[in-house]
Amino acid sequence: MNRIRTSLIASLALLMTGALHATDEPAAPEAPPSWPQSRSFAQLGENKDLLLLGVHNSQQVEFTLPRDRIAQEASLRLDYTPSPALLPGLSHMRIYLNDVLMDTVVIEAEQLGRRTRQQVALAPKLVSDFNQVRIEFVGHYTDVCEDPGHSSLWLSLGRDSTIELREQALTLRNDLAFFPQPFFDKRDRNPLRLHMVLASTPDEQTLQAAAVLASYFGSLAGWRGAEFPVLFDRLPSSMADAKPGHSLVLATNERRPAFMDDMERFPPVAGPEVRLIDHPAASYSKVLLVQGRDEDELALAVRALALGGKLLRGERAEIRDVQSLASRKPYDAPNWTPTDRPVRFAELIDYPGQLQTRGLMPRPIELEVRLPPDLFVWRNQGIPLHTRYRYTAPTANDESRLNISINDEFIAGLPLISGPQNRQETLRLAVSPHETANARDKLMVPSLKIGARNTIRYDFSFATTFGSAQPDRCQTTLAVDNRALIDEESTIDFSGYYHFIAMPDLAAFTRSGFPFSRMADLSETLVLMPATPSAMQIGLMLETLAGIAAQTGYPAINLSLSHDWREARERDADLLVFGDMPEGLEQTTELNALLREPGDWLLQAPARQSAQMRAPARLEQAAFPAEARVEVKAQGPLAAIVGVESPFVSQRSLVALLARDEQDFRLLRQTLSDNGKLGEIQGAVALIRESGVDAQLVGSQYYVGYLPWWLKLWYLLSAHPVLLAVLAALSALLVAVLLWRALRWAAHRRVQEN
Q1: Which of 23, 136, 530, 603 is most buried, with most CB under 10 Å away?
Q2: Distance (Å, rounded) from C-alpha 150 to C-alpha 130?
Q3: Is the Cα torsion angle 18, 22, 24, 25 positive or negative in sign?
Q4: In angstroms, rounded to a whole number, what is the distance separating the alpha carbons of residues 597 and 576?
Q5: Are 432 and 379 in contact, with CB atoms under 8 Å apart?
Q6: How many whole angstroms separate alpha carbon 308 and alpha carbon 321?
């Protein structure tokens, strides 16, 4: 009996132990999310179809993969049209991924001269952070004595060809040593999207800190663009099968989002700090907590991220102090070409090897030069361009040329001779539209062709003679692998030019962030927000400042933000306004769009002037008054961007992004993220509807910058030739009268002396 009792107790113990072990088993690991990703050649930078030839038979397309994901599947969908003169079966394409042959695509008879789509599998294990897909065309038009340069050897590779991946998220440690990853990865070509999470009803200092943080990520994103959806009190929802999204959270001990109410999980901080955590609902999404005991410490933590993010490490970083070593100077934005000294090409390159090219038909060498939009280059002796270049010398003095152009405007062609391989040319990119060009000395570029973003292009064109390809005399010659480069010590010099521009000019604002970007840290900018801004209004403000930082390449760490318009009256600053204009101000300034609740009040310009604004406006264009006031009551979103002179300080600007409701602000945000619509914004007022942008130059102009009085007078009079002719005649008459009086006085004096 005792034995039976003992065995029953043992069995019961085993069952209880098993139950306990069953409850202690770890939960199944979260399945990593995966999603399809498609990138066309156009999205990867190839804006037109690629033409493969017999002598230029290879094209390379590059794509990247962020650090926090891997490729599960990979393929290439080719969209191509082969020449109808090719030999089918013998002509083909070779597809390489990172210099590894993936497949051979044979051109069939039914494909000749027709658009064809074909899928090619790529090895996902070869896909890394930086990848190259190379397509080589091997074409034949005859099986006896071919000419590699024959016009029938071509294949058009469509820009709609696509690289398709299935990406899978990777588990990342919460380590700030990799910051700004995963929030920004320079390998990712997609627009940056980060959620900005704030406590409800954020105050001015919190909004200012959010603006600085958004501008920091905007300066990193650059041409990609940045989007900041704003959420109050909650993190974005995250689905297990969706692409991970990351969030930025700004909080203080007294003012924090509602999801941080758990004091054990989110304890109060003892000072400014930055902390990296997992999203509570999805570990593959990260959350960056930027915290401080009060708003001043929160601002200190944000400045530490913007200026010293590379010093962070670990899951949590405490900020001790942030000190700016030197104050910014006007026009010293990192993305802008310096205008106070000659600039070496080595300072302008974006990647190694940019100034080199090779091949039978080498790719052009392009160099981007970004300039402040107010650079005054009117009627001067030209922009010095000192170019050094080397190249593979041709066997004889033939028709080989180096063609130089700027902004697609041809400048000159220089011969590539068979003598010394090292050459240099001192050219002058003139900015007067009335001068002529000399290929060896002064190369003239019309002033209207010089813009905020300029591209200098060098085309090395080598004349090549192949062997004879006639049926009775077949002789082949191996083509030379031509190489050329522009020396990094070449220089361009924009020094000695004044800064002067006619305003308002909304094109300068959308293109370069001017006049706010004059100081890269926006230290002379005051942002004016409504007293209780909505999430849509805050998002518009963040994305606008991120766009300005993308142009300058520097965060707006010294930006000022306020709800009180009285501060604008006391500050010597440019004003950036979001929302509505305050009562009374619209009557004291020439605002050209007043958006109010009763209706949409628009001041329309004369039809003849509106037509002139369809073309780029010259700075000296005369101002004109508004002609009519029209009241409209209608449905549908309508917004406006207005530029006027500040009513408080002369030579200061006010740019207002005006809207009434959420639809209007959404339309504004969409417009500012659309490069096509941004190009239509110019003049003094841009009315934005779903159908497009209507830009007009209305009201009086004002001038910002400095010119010597004599140059400014001559410039202003140049727009009025009749007045200039009258003044010239009056001056000549005055000189003649003075000379006549002087001669009479001299004659009278001689008579008296005699």
Answers
A1: 603
A2: 35
A3: positive
A4: 22
A5: yes
A6: 11
DSSP 141: S
0.70 surpassed by pTM = yes
Residue 729, pLDDT above cutoff 60? yes
CA 699 to chain CA mean position, Å = 31
Tokens of 412: 């000159």
Which tokens belong to 680?
């239509």
Alpha carbons 677 and 571: distance in angstroms, whole number: 33
Distance from C-alpha of 489 to C-alpha of 386, rounded to nearest angstrom: 9
Which pLDDT does position 384 carry in this prediction?
A: 83
SS3 316: strand
* pLDDT tens digits, 274-288: 999 999 888 889 999
The answer to whether the CB of 56 falls within 8 A of the CB of 156 is: no
Q: Strands (DSSP E) along 83-235, which ranges?
A: 92-97, 100-106, 116-122, 130-138, 154-157, 162-169, 192-193, 195-198, 226-227, 230-232
Q: Are 252 and 270 in contact (CB under 8 A)?
A: no
pLDDT at residue 552 in the model = 94
In this predicted structure, the answer to whether residue 132 has a pLDDT above a threshold of 70 is yes
Contacting residues for 25 by C-beta, under 8 A, at least 6 apart: none
% of the chain residues with pLDDT over 70: 80
> Beta-carbon neighbour count of residue 570 at 10 Å?
11
Three-state secondary-structure class, residue 176: helix
In the chain the first and final C-alpha atoms are separated, in Å, by 165
Position 327 scores a pLDDT of 81
Q: Which two tokens stand for residue 202?
A: 């954020």
**What percent of the residues of the chain are helix, what percent strand, and what percent coil, each to the nearest 5?**
25, 30, 45
Q: What is the per-residue pLDDT for 596?
A: 39
Which pLDDT value is given to residue 590?
A: 45
pLDDT level of residue 603 (50, 70, 90 thresholds): very low
